[in-house]
């Protein structure tokens, strides 16, 4: 197996900020990738979506950067920028010509250190309205838009870090105030709760000087406690039908599995690929090609810091029965676990995963994000070979052992056209 080890340097400032430097002079570009250890799992009670709000708020200006200028400075330099919020983390990233690295670091430091000083009621109200409209457009008024909100709500009990959707519930979104925002920011947006990756064309000594210049003066005032939570098994299977503005019926079957980087997850990843990763996938071949019951079939393994699950999703062809589709899914899983997968299936899946993995490393953005990803979950940024090695270790027997997850209670979630409500 190709050695995917990268040469990097990791250190911490006195205020706790973790810094990861990865020089790569192959192109005259640099990437700044900043992770805060705060996702929707940290949303306060009755304030769901607050972590996601910050993904928007942090672009609304800080003490020395006016509203809209963060975008302007980066885009005028020829760079790009974005942000994302997950259950576990919020990250912000810029890709710029290497000569503008200092600009990107200054912008990130100013909002880390001086965001609150620029916060106004008007800005907050404006971004609440933006998030409200995002919620309406992407969730409430989008066909199948409530899919993952429903899945996580059924899978995890109230109080679990993954119970509520990352965007938040509408009543909570409309209730945010300056006190909520201020307390959340002072708790989580501090150096000791963050890690920054600088990757690309830069001189290490100069980058260290810039990090020191812009970030060392920002204080870390609070300790961030670890979340303590139990991810209990489902006691019984749960079913729900959502009558929605959809034209095609859809079914999702979901089983609880493991938290991130559990070795079984790599067997489950390969299982998902064997089921639906290509036209040769067992479920795809059966439901789409042979029986012509489905328009679309997919399977995947999700895992985070506080839980994981395996999901099979099928969109039915018009007039086809979701009950019949579910029966075939369960039958095909049973056949697979009783009779094993083939060597050809295992080899094809491993090769596909390896190719995708290595292809992703051709992008500096992806490498920078993965360094932060590994640092957050494993404490070791250079874990590329470790992860790929865990896929290499998967054998037919380890895939077969995953049968234990599918013997447990599961979620059965269905989306059905509204006009069929009276027929159910």
Offer a quick outline of the entry.
With 424 residues, this protein is α+β, with helices and mostly antiparallel strands. 42% of the residues lie in helices and 19% in strands.
Instruction: State the order of secondary-structure elements, H for helix, E for strand.
Output: EEEHHEEHHHHHEHEEHHEEHHHHHHE
Counting DSSP E segments of at least 2 residues, the number of strands comes to: 11
Count helical runs: 16
Helix content: 40-55%
Q: In this structure, how is the largest beta sheet organized? A: 6 strands, mixed
- Overall average pLDDT: 95
Kindly, what is the distance between the CA atoms of the first and last residues, rounded to a whole number of angstroms? Answer: 54 Å
Poorly predicted tracts of residues: none
Account of the 3D structure:
It is a single chain. This protein is an alpha+beta fold and 424 residues long. The protein folds into two domains: 9-215, Cytochrome Bc1 Complex, Chain A, domain 1 (2-Layer Sandwich); 238-423, Cytochrome Bc1 Complex, Chain A, domain 1. It has helices at 50-57, 69-76, 101-114, 121-140, 147-155, 170-173, 178-188, 204-215, 264-276, 282-290, 322-339, 343-360, 364-378, 384-392, 396-400, 403-406; strands at 9-12, 18-23, 29-36, 80-85, 90-97, 194-200, 238-244, 250-256, 294-304, 307-316, 411-417. A six-stranded mixed β-sheet has the order 1-2-6-3-5-4, sandwiched between helices. The chain has a five-stranded mixed β-sheet with strand order 7-11-8-10-9, sandwiched between helices. A hairpin with a 4-residue loop joins strand 4 (80-85) and strand 5 (90-97). The longest helix has 20 residues, at 121-140. It starts with 8 loop residues before the first strand and ends in a 7-residue tail after the last strand. The mean pLDDT is 95.
């Amino acid at each position: 197996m190709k050695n995917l080890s990268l040469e990097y340097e990791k250190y911490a400032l006195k205020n706790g900020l973790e810094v990861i430097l990865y020089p790569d002079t192959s192109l005259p570009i640099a990437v700044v990738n900043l992770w805060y250890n705060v996702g929707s799992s940290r949303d306060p009670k009755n304030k769901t979506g607050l972590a996601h709000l910050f993904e928007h708020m942090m672009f609304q200006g800080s003490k020395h950067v006016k509203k809209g200028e963060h975008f302007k400075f980066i885009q005028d330099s020829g760079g790009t920028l974005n942000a994302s919020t997950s259950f576990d983390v919020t990250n912000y990233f810029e890709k710029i010509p290497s000569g503008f690295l200092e600009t990107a670091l200054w912008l990130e430091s100013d909002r880390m250190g001086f965001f609150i000083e620029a916060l106004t009621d008007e800005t907050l109200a404006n971004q609440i309205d933006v998030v409200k409209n995002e919620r309406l457009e992407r969730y409430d008024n989008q066909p199948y838009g409530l899919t993952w909100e429903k899945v996580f709500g059924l899978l995890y009990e109230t109080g679990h870090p993954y119970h509520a959707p990352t965007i938040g519930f509408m009543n909570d979104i409309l209730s945010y105030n300056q006190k909520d925002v201020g307390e959340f920011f002072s708790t989580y947006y501090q150096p000791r709760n963050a890690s920054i990756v600088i990757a690309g064309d830069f001189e290490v000594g100069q980058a260290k000087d810039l990090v020191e210049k812009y970030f060392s003066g920002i204080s870390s005032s609070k300790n961030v406690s670890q979340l303590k939570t139990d991810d209990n098994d489902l006691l019984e299977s749960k079913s729900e039908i959502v009558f929605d503005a959809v034209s095609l019926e859809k079914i999702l079957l979901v089983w609880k599995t493991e938290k991130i980087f559990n070795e079984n997850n790599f067997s489950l990843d390969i299982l998902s690929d064997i089921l639906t990763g290509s036209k040769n996938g067992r479920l795809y071949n059966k439901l789409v090609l042979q029986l012509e019951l489905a328009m679309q079939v997919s399977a995947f393994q999700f895992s985070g810091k506080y839980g994981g699950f395996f999901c099979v999703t099928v969109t039915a062809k018009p007039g086809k029965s979701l009950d019949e589709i579910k029966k075939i899914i369960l039958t095909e899983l049973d056949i697979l676990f009783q009779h094993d997968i083939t060597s050809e299936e295992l080899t094809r899946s491993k090769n596909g995963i390896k190719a995708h993995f290595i292809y992703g490393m051709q992008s500096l953005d992806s490498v920078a994000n993965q360094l932060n990803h590994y640092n957050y979950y494993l404490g070791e940024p250079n874990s590329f070979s470790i992860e790929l090695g865990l896929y290499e270790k998967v054998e037919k027997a380890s895939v077969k052992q995953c049968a234990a997850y599918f013997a447990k209670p599961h979620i059965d979630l269905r989306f059905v056209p509204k006009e069929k409500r009276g027929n159910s």
